[in-house]
Amino acid sequence: MSNIIIDRRRNSKGKSTVNRERFMRRYRNHIRKAVNDAVNSRSITDTDSGEEISINKKNLSEPFFHHGQGGKREQTHPGNKEFITGDRFKRPKGGGGGGGAGDGDASDSGEGMDDFVFQIDRDEFLEFLFDDLELPNMVRKELKDSTEFSWRRGGFTNVGSPDRINVIRSLRGAHARRIALSGKDRKEIRTLKRELREMEVSPDETDKDRAAEIQLRIKELNEKIKRLPFIDDFDLKFNNMIKVPIPSSKAVMFCVMDVSGSMTRDIKDMAKRFFFLLYMFLQRNYKQVDVVFIRHHAEAKECDEHDFFYARETGGTVVSSALTLTRDIMQDRYNPKDYNIYVAQASDGDNWEADSPKCSKVISEDLMPLLSYYAYVEITDRHHQNLWHEYKKLEKDHPDYFAMAHIRSPADIYPVFRELFEKREVTA
Amino acid sequence: MSKKKNTKQDAQPLFTGSEWNFELIETVGQEIAKIADEFGLDTYPNQIEVICSEQMLDAYASVGMPLMYNHWSYGKHFLSNQANYQRGRMGLAYEIVINSNPCISYLMEENSMTMQTLVIAHACYGHNSFFKGNYLFREWTDADSIIDYLLFAKNYIAKCEEMHGVDAVEEVLDACHALQSQGVNRYKRPKPLSANEEKHRQKDREEYIQRTINDIWTTIPQKFRKKEEHEEHFPKDPEENLLYFIEKHAPLLETWQRELIRIVRKMGQYFYPQKQTKVMNEGWATFWHYTLMTELHDRGKITDGSMLEFLQSHTNVVYQPEFDDQRYSGINPYTLGFNIFMDIKRICLDPTDEDREWFPDIAGQDWVKVLDYAMRNFKDESFILQYLSPKVMRDMRFFTIRDDDTNPYLEVSAIHNDEGYRQLRQNLAAQYNLGNLEPNIQVYNVDVRGDRSITLRHYMHERCPLDEQSTNEILGHIKNLWGFDVKLESFDGEETIATYPPSAKDGDNKAA
After folding, report:
1. Residues B31-79: tens digit of each pLDDT
2. DSSP label at A92?
3. Mind telling me which PANTHER family this protein's record contains (chain A) (predicted)?
4. Residue A52: closest CA among chain B residues belongs to which residue?
5. Distance from first CA to last CA of chain B, Å, rounded?
6. Chain A positions in Cβ-Cβ contact with residue B416 (cut-off 8 Å)
7. What does the DSSP assignment read for B156-210?
8. pTM beyond 0.80
9. ipTM strictly over 0.85?
10. Which of A369, A313, A365, A320 is nearest to A345 (CA)?
């Protein structure tokens, strides 16, 4: 009896992938919470690494009926040194005698309540981070100069590149051509053959010469048919592909950050974290989102990503400067017909007194009619000032389109972010 | 080390390096087969599969089976194994072997040739012959059809997930997994599994089950009811197989849910013999890898170097930390089993007076036959009771601690001395009696005429209570399956000691 030996190393290794997904799916909420905690403790630019997730084992238990402490039990152990029968000693604390030892079946749920720790990779981390979030009120805009096309099959052509050859069509064509071109000859062969057969039936009258002549003619015709090419350039058919523009949802996000002197380092850092989350979210979940960075103190300036997050200049506070700049850029570059336009603004709410009503005016008159969503976060641990109160009115006037939230400490950033961009039931 | 120098000179070692290849595995396999045959080992045909470490992790995660339905808990095990393995906290087993015909053994590609030889001896001849010979496996499992059945189960469950959603399937499976140990027939011999038959009969069963269930739950007209003066129990006798009972009698389950219960139940039944023969099974395989490797070496088929490498890993396998060692986590089944089997062989070959007194039947007999008999006709509990010798107890320095919660102290109740041997042996055997280890929980009553609640009864062993938290959790699972209230009472033979869930008593009033 010889053994069968099989090399399975090339077989798929990912047998557990599905089970792993099932696990992640089941413990979504726990993992999300761990991700939430992690995001607050991470450096704001650290997006390349995965994360170690730990879940309390209690939540993962797969219970099975087993004994608790108490009752009478006898446990046999190896390695006796000095005990003799009848020795007594105090019951150790923590219930060492509580069983478990000796039964190899105890699953890991029976062990202490350590955390269950495992690793998720970067993609999974981001997925959990931005799970169930979206840009609100996003509409598919009609796109004149759409850059997105999809290729669709559109019939067949006679010219094309070899990789598009449609074999069946081509061979069918060739077959038809061969039938058509050889029709006359085959008809002649058939009559000649019939004549031959008649001759064979009545051999007496056979004209030998005529027979030979017919044979020759048949051979000639057969060769002629054979000479027809099996496939001709003319037969080739190609799959035709046509370009179809598809409407896509383009969007632009204006990130407006206050960098005035009243913003302390901590507040700025929180604002940056907020925008960084927003930026990662947009990058990951939307292909077609433009981001415009605007920083402002007494005057506003459009800048690039790097300056937005790292530049250090500062000054007084005139919020409306940023808003008018936003308006100008919008009119200049982003037609609301083509774009869903979003604005996210972060500030400590400390605005120049007379400026706040102006802000309110710019937003409600110039911006809101064009916007899909306006999100304002105020980062401060003090009392709200006039800007907040002005904005409160806006929130009332534009439900669903204007949202504001308050961040007190770094721990609020992610929850507030989620709250602002939570996937909502479709209202419009 | 080598006693039979005479044969050694004229033999060439089968291999000298540590690299393995398929021809070598084949040759070694044949050589071992030859020796195993001389010792009369009867095995299923072997199917040896070489896999890599990731695949080994996969196999680990799905209870060692090559095919398994999908479930989150396997994902959890996979993640924890993977984390431990990657951090170097855990080594992987050298092999996994499956009780099937042909007997499938997995070898890891990382193993050296010596290790592959060891694994072939251990799994393909040790475990394999145990699967084929031991009475529990013969009676309770069907090696011919397990793989087919797994395939059937996997496909069926995948189909259910498609039709009813992953969550619905998961809910049933979770509940069943919690009850897997209570889904076993301990005394009746089940029909062997057969995937083909399962498929055929599944349709019939679906109809039949629904019909019988309705029989139980039909409302009986008033006039008949009066006859039943005394309270009649349903079931008449307590039922130990909770999953079976639920599968057959739960009023609200749909047929596919019953089928899922059945699948988990069948799996539980399949693994039941393995749970009961850990010591024997591992001891047997270890005894044979040791014997076969020594024999190979004696015949000059493996080099002294290989032999040393083998002995080192063998020593690790049978290492038993003592009770006060940090690494101690119970008795190592490999060690205990190996020691007993080795000792049986010793008693046969070279009995002392003590052995003649304790084991008059086997002292001086043909060891191959005695061992074969022992392997075939016992499970851990009875095996220990029958064969654990005073010498092994002395060598392993066994002692028993009695932990009685009515006393404020622990007591050493027996040690390895003349007065203690028998007691010690009994205690150790009882420790492997699943009936003592696992709580004995049975279906006691169903309130057929009333609120349809089900009452389970925990028959207490030595007053051991149930673990409260997990018990309440499981009752939740049972409620999901049963569809109505579930009560569990711990019964010590005279009276009910505890009820679960704790609020069950006042729950009665509210239920109305």
Report:
1. 999 999 999 999 999 999 998 888 888 888 777 787 888 898 888 888 8
2. P
3. UPF0229 PROTEIN YEAH (PTHR30510)
4. B83
5. 78
6. 80
7. HHHHHHHHH-HHHHHHHHHHHHHTGGGS--SSSPPPPP-HHHHHHHHHHHHHHHH
8. no
9. no
10. A320
